[in-house]
């Protein structure tokens, strides 16, 4: 899987180790979900103000959040939105400020929180959701399996 990372924020120091985390968990999700080798995902790193604006514009929620996914394979009445939706999965927006805040709140590393948010966003791109208890359990199990595979399990 190819990951295109764009750092559009300046609040949190961005370094190679965090890029490696995103690439590692994306590879873990690709393997776990048997994604085609040509699969592509965009990961856009933003700050809290940016993600709040995205959340307001696209989800009509005037609040910060940690991760928002925009899948190219979401269907409407006319079919798939993009002809290459089988391998161009979409974009994930992650607030690095919120990532750091949540890592502190949950008592684990920024690496671990970024890994979790990346996996969570990727699963949303693949059609997973957490709107029912059963789907939440299924999604959480995949997240935990991939986190364990990259040695970032919940402690």
TrEMBL record:
EC top class, as a word: hydrolase
Pfam families: YbeY
UniProt keyword annotation of Lipid biosynthesis present: no
Gene3D superfamilies to which the protein is assigned, alphabetical: Metalloproteases ('zincins'), catalytic domain
Cofactor(s), by name: Zn(2+)
Coiled-coil segments: none
GO terms, molecular function: metalloendopeptidase activity; RNA endonuclease activity; zinc ion binding
GO term, biological process aspect, one: rRNA processing
Residues that hold Zn(2+) according to the record: 120, 124, 130
GO cellular component: cytoplasm
Keyword list, A-Z: Cytoplasm, Endonuclease, Hydrolase, Metal-binding, Nuclease, Ribosome biogenesis, rRNA processing, Zinc
Main location as per UniProt: cytoplasm
Enzyme Commission number(s) of this protein: 3.1.-.-
Cofactor note: Binds 1 zinc ion.
Localisation per UniProt entry: Cytoplasm
Family assignment from sequence similarity: Belongs to the endoribonuclease YbeY family.
Function: Single strand-specific metallo-endoribonuclease involved in late-stage 70S ribosome quality control and in maturation of the 3' terminus of the 16S rRNA.
PANTHER family: ENDORIBONUCLEASE YBEY, CHLOROPLASTIC
Protein name, UniProt field: Endoribonuclease YbeY
